Amino acid sequence: MSNKQPKTLGEFIIENQAAFPYSSGELSRLINAIRLAAKVVNHEVNKAGLVDIIGQAGGVNIQGEEQQKLDVLANNLFIQTLTNREIVCGIASEEEDHFISINSKNKDYQNNYVVLFDPLDGSSNIDVNVSVGTIFSIYRRITPIGTPVTLADFLQRGRAQVAAGYIIYGTSTMLVYTTGDGVNGFTLNPAIGTFYLSHPQMQFPKNPKIYSINEGHYAYFPEAIKKYLKYCQDSVEGRPYTARYIGSLVSDFHRNLIKGGIFLYPETAQAPKGKLRLLYECNPMALLAEQAGGDATNGKIAILDILPETLHERTPFYCGHKKMMTELHRFLKF
Ligand code: P6P
Questions:
Q1: Fewer CB in a 10 Å sphere around the end CB: N or C, the chain?
Q2: Using CA atoms in the order 250, 277, 304, 225, what is the torsion angle rounded to 10 degrees?
Q3: Rounded Cα distance, 46 and 43, in Å
Q4: 143 lines ligand 1 (CB under 6 A)
Q5: Going by C-beta distance under 8 Å and a sequence separation of 6 or more, which residues neighbour residue 129?
Q6: Ligand 1 atom closest to 265 (CA)
Q7: pLDDT at 63 over 70
Q8: pLDDT digits (tens, 9 = 90+) for 159-193
């Protein structure tokens, strides 16, 4: 049994920073800010069932505190942490209609990065004790430093992300992220509030067997998807595959990354652009998938190559192991 302590997230960030000697360390400080917010949200999510914090916003919980829904709470925590640390010049969130321009107290819009996030994806699962997550996406601004950010800074193709990742608040809490040099997973030791490198250089495993889709929408799926699902269920050459669906994107993605699988959220007649959001759900997951040796498309082009038009736009989303994505694309005539 090795008695060598695994690397902490802090040590990993410092080592990674050393690999970018000319960078200002701003990205490292940004990841550190996300780490702090993740620990606070994790604490709130884990006590949710006890202090009846799950309910509708606007009530008062048993401690007499102003009751906030967890996703509102998570949203405010991430915005406060990123603002207080004076690292970013702009924020966009699933919980905010418009982007937030941040002018640091003593600097005129001198920060380089904008952050987009879904503060608590899958939050409807909280009151049934199913894992939920935070998803984040980081870009360098493209408008001139010293000026307020504009929408253009947020509507960049996913391939321009400088970092992306998620926190999964599950049986254990993990931070999984990439800065473009592979995907690394860190597990929180809640007793001391430290994230440890538990999953270095994550890659989709060989022989993937899991397909993940809400088959309750089957009647509304495109014919090609119906045919693909029947293919998954054939009893020939290594099939049927196994169906697994949690209904929380972060959880379904995380399981597929570790065990090998594909996630599908197709467009339907009722939702012609699908349900999932391009900027702060699909782009970060697509970057992680490609960095882990997988693939992510909207059925026609790579997710990371889509030029966004609006902040909250949706997209059909297919993401996972390259072998299963290749099989799917045969049905989508990709
Ligand atoms: P459905 C959660 O509400 C979410 O945004 C994602 O986390 C998840 O993948 C999807 O919606 C589930 O949607 O239609 O299957 O309930």
A1: N
A2: 80
A3: 5
A4: no
A5: 49
A6: 9
A7: no
A8: 999 999 999 998 899 999 999 999 999 999 999 99
pLDDT per residue as tens digits for the range 288-300:
999 999 999 999 9
Q: What is the distance between the alpha carbons of residues 53 and 63, in angstroms, rounded to a whole number?
A: 10
Best mutation site among 135, 169, 276, 280 for ligand 1 pocket (most ligand atoms within 8 Å of CB) = 276
Mutate to test the pocket of ligand 1, among 117, 123, 169, 265 (most ligand atoms within 8 A of CB): 265
Expressed in angstroms and rounded, the spacing between residue 31 Cα and the centre of ligand 1 is 26
Given a contact cutoff of 8 angstroms between Cβ atoms, the answer to whether 273 and 279 are in contact is no
CATH of range 210-332; options 3.20.20.30, 3.40.50.620, 3.40.190.80, 3.30.43.10: 3.40.190.80
Q: What is the CA(248)–ligand 1 centre distance, in A?
A: 6
Which helix (H) or strand (E) element contains residue 41?
helix 26-47
| C-beta of 214 in contact with ligand 1 (< 6 A) | yes
CATH of domain 9-199: 3.30.540.10
